[in-house]
Design brief:
Layout: H1 2-20, H2 31-48, H3 51-54, H4 57-65, H5 73-90, H6 96-101, H7 105-116, H8 120-168, H9 174-228, H10 233-241, H11 246-265
Length: 266
């Protein structure tokens, strides 16, 4: 939700800034400027990318504005430690129930390969290939917004030139001349705003979300391979928890200690 809040804050800041500068907000009503900026940006994106990638634009925009829920590192570590405990007590076949119940397809795929008895090297290779494929898809999605952020400000200059051409046709009418010059720079305003407040920040947000998802998947791979190689649950917990930031690590350790105390009482 921070993306939506940021966009609203930017709109309010620019709106109040215009009022403080004495510019009328009604000047923003300029259909030609919107057509040049948004239509031109869309056209440039269509030239640069195939439709198979462009059609993902709405989905990517939704992901950027409404961040999907991903398990935190501490939650994933807890799940992997639970898998290690079951594997140690009951064997790898007992992991089938967890694999069937988990909503994480990546974790499910890894557990199923462990249950089926594939080689460690093969499991690692398959899971790393999947992470690499995800990275490529995410980079392509973020690149669409990065390019849109590059095109929009330049199209704003184009819109200003078009507006000035119209202004030059009204040199004999001072009222129309002033209005035409004002309208000419609305396109520049829209181009800069959409480029540097919308498209580039959205691209950076998608990259950050991609990095977060990949970090969790790499942590999952490390945990699954350790489970397959017979690492004890306590050792696995220590091995994986080093990747947690200090604040999250303290919280994780408190929760783990509480769970151990509950287990002893039970």
């Amino acid at each position: 939700m921070s993306s939506i809040f940021g966009i609203l804050l930017a709109l309010l800041a620019i709106g109040f800034g215009m009022v403080l500068k004495g510019a009328s907000l009604t000047s923003l009503y300029n259909p030609a400027a919107y057509l040049i900026i948004f239509g031109g940006t869309a056209a440039a994106i269509m030239v640069a990318f195939p439709f198979s990638e462009i059609k993902k634009f709405p989905q990517l925009l939704k992901i950027a504005l409404i961040e999907p829920k991903l398990p935190s590192k501490s939650q994933q570590i807890s799940s992997l430690v639970e898998c290690a405990e079951i594997a140690k007590k009951e064997g790898f076949l007992a992991l089938e129930e967890i694999a069937g119940n988990t909503k994480d397809p990546f974790l499910r795929n890894g557990l199923e390969m462990i249950i089926d008895g594939y080689d460690v090297e093969f499991i690692e290779e398959v899971l790393l290939d999947e992470v690499e494929a995800i990275d490529k898809r995410h980079k392509t999605g973020a690149l669409i917004f990065t390019q849109a952020g590059t095109y929009a400000p330049t199209l704003g200059v184009l819109g200003a030139v078009v507006g000035l051409i119209a202004a030059l046709g009204n040199l004999n009418n001072v009222d129309k001349l002033g209005h035409s010059i004002s309208a000419a720079f609305i396109a520049t305003l829209l181009g800069i705003f959409t480029g540097y407040v919308l498209w580039h920040p959205i691209a950076n947000r998608l990259k950050r979300l991609s990095k977060k998802e990949q970090d969790i998947k790499l942590l999952t791979i490390e945990g699954l391979l350790a489970i397959y190689q017979g690492l004890s649950p306590s050792a696995l917990e220590k091995k994986l928890s080093v990747s947690l930031p200090p604040k999250e690590l303290k919280k994780f350790e408190r929760n783990a200690e509480g769970e151990k105390q509950d287990a002893k009482i039970a």
